[in-house]
From TrEMBL:
Name of this protein: Glycosyl transferase
Domain of life: Bacteria
Gene3D superfamilies, per database record: Glycogen Phosphorylase B
Pfam families: Glyco_transf_9 (PF01075)
GO biological process: lipopolysaccharide core region biosynthetic process
A GO-annotated cellular component: cytosol
InterPro entries for the chain: Glyco_trans_9, LPS_LOS_Heptosyltrfase
MF GO annotations: ADP-heptose-lipopolysaccharide heptosyltransferase activity
The entry's keywords: Glycosyltransferase, Transferase
Length: 364
């Protein structure tokens, strides 16, 4: 079914549903002074998206300190939200249509009055919110694209060319929430791990969701050689998922036996809380535009980040600018060869990144 047909069908179904029942109220009846006791927040996409949403989530909790807040989250973020003090309950959903009835059934038990859709898939998210009994629905209009579900929305936020975090805050500002705290935060507590004394821990996140967004592994290998030769105290810490183990193998193959002894790989070996503990001990993390970058920013771990498909003005570091250095390859304005277009970040050399890492270590 095409997207337009889905939207048409969704609107038709909701019109029938609300004609004979439902609790949705006229958007004109909303005002920021209203109090809500039961709220549902939707954040069902990637790890980085969840992190971008945390300032808005905090603002909602501060605005409604006694409200029962249910989070609808993706399964992949379960370890980051299941035990969070910011939510009274969590429902897991990967925004698939076949699971909607189950989600609606679970959500109805909480009798939500207000839905705040920070990042999810339309029109399924709006259908779930309305049929679960929400009186008002607020949604972030990602990319300023019309959702086709506007008649059911009491409020939307749209991009003004700034950061995603600010846009989410602009959405909840319509509820009377404060928007002055733009810092991301880690939603859960995690046990610390002891840091090896005398070691300078330099993290590498080499993988990303697509090859296009990766800095070539040979560049990481050459950077490691430079860093290990620069100081006997430097130690490389690798992080990543089990799916990225082939990258780890290629990286290690380019090092000497002596250099390999100064590399610790956590790739595919940690839970998310354990990963947070590892990252919190790093002096600096070198990473592409991927989820761990945003975890590091929230942890206030210094970063050197490499961007290519996304504009860092929209999705890069938005806090503690003194801790974060961004290297950006805008493919629409730079002349690249066919080979370079497959991995545009390849035009960034290991020496350029080394200088950024050295600067971060010097500040630290």
């Amino acid at each position: 079914m095409s997207k337009q047909w889905k939207i048409t069908a969704a609107n038709a179904c909701l019109q029938v549903y609300t004609r004979f029942g439902g609790s949705v109220k006229d958007k004109a009846s909303f005002h920021p002074g209203l109090t809500f006791n039961r709220i549902v927040i939707f954040s069902t996409t990637a790890l980085g998206d969840l992190m971008f949403n945390t300032p808005a989530i905090r603002a909602v909790r501060e605005r409604y300190p006694t409200a029962h807040i249910t989070l609808i989250s993706s399964y992949k973020n379960k370890q980051l939200v299941a035990e969070s003090r910011f939510f009274n309950d969590v429902i897991y959903w990967d925004h698939k249509a076949k699971d909607m009835l189950s989600v609606i059934h679970q959500l109805r038990k909480h009798k939500p009055e207000l839905a705040i859709i920070l990042h999810s898939k339309s029109p399924y998210d709006v259908i779930v919110a309305i049929t679960a009994g929400c009186h008002y629905v607020f949604k972030d209009a990602y990319g300023n694209k019309a959702t086709g579900m506007e008649p059911w929305l009491s409020g939307v936020s749209r991009s003004t060319g700034g950061h995603l975090i600010q846009r989410k805050l602009d959405l909840v500002a319509q509820l009377g929430c404060r928007t002055d705290n733009t810092e991301m935060f880690i939603p859960i507590e995690f046990p610390p791990v002891n840091k090896t004394s005398g070691k300078t821990l330099i993290g590498f996140q080499m993988g990303a969701s697509e090859t296009l967004r990766c800095w070539p592994v040979e560049r990481f290998t050459h950077l490691a050689k430079l860093l290990l030769a620069h100081s006997p105290h430097n130690q490389i810490e690798l992080i990543g998922t089990p799916k990225e183990l082939a990258i780890e193998k290629a990286f290690m193959a380019g090092l000497t036996a002596a250099e390999q002894q100064r590399v610790v790989s956590h790739m595919g070996k940690t839970t998310l809380p354990q990963l947070l503990a590892v990252m919190s001990n790093m002096q600096v993390l070198v990473t592409g535009d991927t989820g761990p970058l945003h975890l590091a920013i929230a942890l206030k771990t210094p970063t050197v980040s490499l961007f290519v498909t996304a504009n860092p003005q929209h999705t890069g570091p938005y806090q503690n600018s003194e801790l974060h250095q961004v290297m950006y390859v805008p493919t629409d304005t730079i002349q690249l060869s066919a080979a370079q277009r497959r991995q545009p970040l390849s035009i960034i050399t290991e020496h350029q990144v080394f200088d950024k890492v050295a600067a971060a270590l010097q500040r630290g």
